[in-house]
């Protein structure tokens, strides 16, 4: 986690956003929207501040927010949760992931995750003293797909936890029912716990998001994580949640108690409102329609510029191979890109393990986000076409 001299390294997202600010390049690196979520939801947070929601809320989250999360899981997926014992509010999905991995794993345990994976996973596995093992997602004509046989082979007697993510950052893959059923078979056969990061659950285009907790044999072994940041375009509010069996949620609550104790008082009523307000949910549907158009715009533009592009089924990221443009290393390509084209992207190597086969296979790949205004994406695409 630290450089050899003990100094903290910024995450790749912070580094690339700083590069964008310094160079004035268009930032298609860090995944955050350049338009805020619904004004009614923002107003609910402002009202909460003005009406006394400013002291520590209950550690597990306010009762109305826990009820709203349980109602969301029931109406959307048919998942029944006890609001007092099976739902925990966290400081973003980031805290939920950290607290879950710290609660459930330790020295000697292996955590099996997809590769590439969101960068915080490797960090929290290291913090827990556990070891990371991986199963690859590979580019195919049908998007990035999970190598199920490799997943099976990666399980050892030390494997304790499967750390899943679908819809998947950075590939935009949405695991289909066959892939999920295969993962579930592996989890049941080896009696593994599953932590599933579903922060992009609403951001899917023409495919269905299936929570793995709904598959047979999975509810009793699965913690499901989500967050208001992606769904409602308020990434700075940091209200996330985790749900699942009472015993597992209780273990995560114990860790959360000593990480943050409690999470953003005024944002909790606002997110409870967002999750239950038909107008706010209709706003999300509109966001998804608009993201699908922006995905198509960016994919077409990247192809025109000469990249090989794998069209994502979900999230707000697209992976592109810069090898046809002469790149030999995605990180070097991304460092040069602001000067060359006035655009910032993130190398996929930030999501892989140095030296792994997946790291080598995706060495020249880079990630762009399309959760930016259409005019920004059009300008970025023009610049890339002109530069290459
Ligand atoms: N998981 C994934 C896959 C993400 O992309 C993100 C967003 N950066 C997070 C977790 C963190 O979410 P939050 O901002 O709610 O902590
Ligand atoms: N999740 C966002 C991304 O993948 C931002 C994460 C961050 O800045 N830590 O770009």
TrEMBL record:
Indicate the segments forming the Aminotransferase class I/classII large domain, all copies. Answer: 26-384
User: Superkingdom of the source?
Assistant: Bacteria
User: Which keywords, in A-to-Z order, does the entry hold?
Assistant: Aminotransferase, Pyridoxal phosphate, Transferase
Cofactors, names only: pyridoxal 5'-phosphate
Name the Pfam families for this protein: Aminotran_1_2
User: Single GO molecular-function term?
Assistant: transaminase activity
Keyword Ribosomal protein attributed: no
- What InterPro entries does the annotation carry? Aminotransferase_I/II_large (IPR004839), Kynurenine-oxoglutarate_AT (IPR051326), PyrdxlP-dep_Trfase (IPR015424), PyrdxlP-dep_Trfase_major (IPR015421), PyrdxlP-dep_Trfase_small (IPR015422)
Q: Which PANTHER family match?
A: FI04487P
Q: What name goes with this protein?
A: Aminotransferase
- The source organism is Cellulomonas phragmiteti
């Amino acid at each position: 986690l630290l450089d050899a001299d003990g100094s903290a390294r910024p995450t790749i997202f912070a580094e690339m956003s700083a590069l964008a600010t310094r160079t004035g390049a268009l930032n298609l690196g860090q995944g955050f929207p350049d338009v805020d979520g619904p004004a009614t939801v923002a107003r609910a947070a402002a009202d909460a501040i003005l009406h006394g929601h400013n002291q520590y809320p209950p550690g597990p989250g306010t009762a109305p927010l826990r009820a709203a999360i349980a109602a969301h899981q029931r109406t959307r997926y048919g998942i029944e949760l006890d609001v007092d014992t099976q739902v925990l509010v966290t400081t973003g999905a980031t805290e939920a992931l950290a607290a879950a991995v710290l609660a459930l794993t330790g020295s000697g345990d292996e955590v099996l995750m997809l590769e590439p994976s969101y960068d915080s996973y490797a960090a929290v596995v290291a913090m827990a003293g556990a070891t990371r093992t991986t199963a690859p997602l590979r580019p195919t004509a049908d998007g990035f797909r999970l190598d199920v046989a490799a997943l099976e082979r990666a399980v050892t007697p030390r494997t304790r936890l499967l750390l899943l993510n679908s819809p998947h950052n950075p590939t935009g893959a949405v695991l289909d029912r066959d892939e999920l059923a295969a993962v579930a078979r592996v989890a049941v056969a080896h009696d593994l716990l599953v932590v599933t990061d579903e922060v992009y659950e609403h951001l899917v285009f023409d495919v269905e998001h299936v929570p793995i907790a709904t598959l047979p044999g999975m509810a009793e072994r699965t913690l499901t994580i989500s967050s208001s940041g992606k769904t409602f375009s308020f990434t700075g509010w940091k209200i996330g949640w985790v749900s699942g069996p009472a015993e597992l949620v209780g273990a995560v609550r114990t860790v959360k108690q000593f990480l943050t104790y409690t999470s953003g008082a005024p944002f909790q009523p606002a997110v409870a409102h967002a999750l239950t307000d038909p107008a706010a949910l209709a706003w999300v549907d509109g966001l998804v329609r608009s993201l699908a158009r922006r995905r198509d715009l960016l994919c077409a533009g990247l192809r025109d510029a000469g990249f090989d592009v794998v069209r994502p089924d979900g999230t707000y990221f697209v992976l592109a191979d810069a090898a046809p443009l002469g790149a030999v290393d995605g990180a070097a390509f991304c460092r040069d890109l602001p000067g060359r084209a006035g655009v910032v992207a993130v190398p996929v190597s930030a999501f892989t393990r140095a030296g792994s086969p997946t790291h080598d296979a995706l060495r020249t790949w880079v990630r762009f986000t399309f959760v930016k205004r259409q005019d920004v994406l059009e300008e970025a695409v023009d610049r890339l076409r002109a530069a290459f």
